[in-house]
Amino acid sequence: MSDSPLLVTVSGPPASGTSTLAERLADEFNLERLNGGDVFRTMAAEYEMELPEFSRLAETDDRIDRELDDRLEGEIDAHLAGRRSSETRSRGLLVESRLAGWHADGRATLAVGLVAPVEVRAARIDDRSETVAELRARERSEAERYRSYYGLEIDDPSVYDLVVDTHTLSPEGVFRTVRTAFEDVR
Known about the structure:
It comes from Natronoglomus mannanivorans. InterPro entries: Cyt_kin_arch, Cytidylate_kinase_dom, P-loop_NTPase. This protein has 9 helices and 5 strands. The chain is an alpha/beta fold. It has a single domain (about 5-185), classed as P-loop containing nucleotide triphosphate hydrolases (Rossmann fold, 3-Layer(aba) Sandwich), CATH 3.40.50. The protein has a 5-stranded parallel β-sheet with strand order 2-3-1-4-5, sandwiched between helices. The chain is globular and about 45 Å long.
């Protein structure tokens, strides 16, 4: 293992399995976990807004996405520069967010992208009552925002070291695949 701080990123569209994988990796390898969704919820509380209202605001106010991304990039930069606690530095950091691979900008020990067909992902989030059409619309909106803000294509797999289709593997199979890759690079 190099002297560089350990950084793992996990990205993917909603219901692709990022949270399941991130939790398993963080537990297995004792990594500190930073979840972009948790940061977004913290921001909503700071703005004194309910999450649905804050999400709607993010659709029209680019400051929300930019602030979220700045916070995540700041945590990554601080970790890689050794400005975080010595415990975190020695443990390593796992960042889970839609743009985590881009935020790491090639500096991750391992950048993982998860994918799955929209129909499969919509079935996984039935408790959120989001239809396939609504999920596609949300993802089109996000893709346009990221293209407009940062000039990136969210579906471009080149930012990842490993892309895993979570439709073809069980959660355990996804974990084993990523664990093997992680053990090879760390």
